[in-house]
Specification:
Blueprint (H helix, E strand, L loop, with lengths): L3 E5 L5 H11 L3 E5 L10 H6 L7 E4 L2 E3 L2 H12 L10
Parallel strand pairs: 1-2
Antiparallel strand pairs: 1-3, 3-4
């Protein structure tokens, strides 16, 4: 199991976060949500993001819910914590 979990839905802004994770090269799990079925409003997702939106990124006990923050997190945090980015 990867240390990162991306909460993702198609189509949504979470595609940007998924693209960024692919560029970084760090392994991650994807938790797909079906927005048409309201899975983003289910209690288990609201526990991750009370606003019921995607994307959300979980790294251990840290949850990030804004796309711009998710896109900067791996370069700043993961490389400091011993996880190397693919381009290093």
């Amino acid at each position: 199991m990867a240390k990162l979990t991306l909460y993702h839905a198609v189509p949504s802004r979470s595609m940007v976060a998924r693209w960024m994770l692919e560029e970084v090269g760090e392994p991650y799990d994807v938790h797909m949500l079906n927005l048409a079925k309201g899975e983003n409003r289910a209690a288990d997702h609201l526990a991750v993001n009370p606003m019921g939106k995607v994307p959300a990124l979980r790294h251990d006990d840290v949850v990030i819910t804004e796309n711009a923050a998710i896109c900067t997190y791996p370069r700043r945090r993961l490389s400091e914590g011993g996880l190397e980015c693919a381009d290093r």
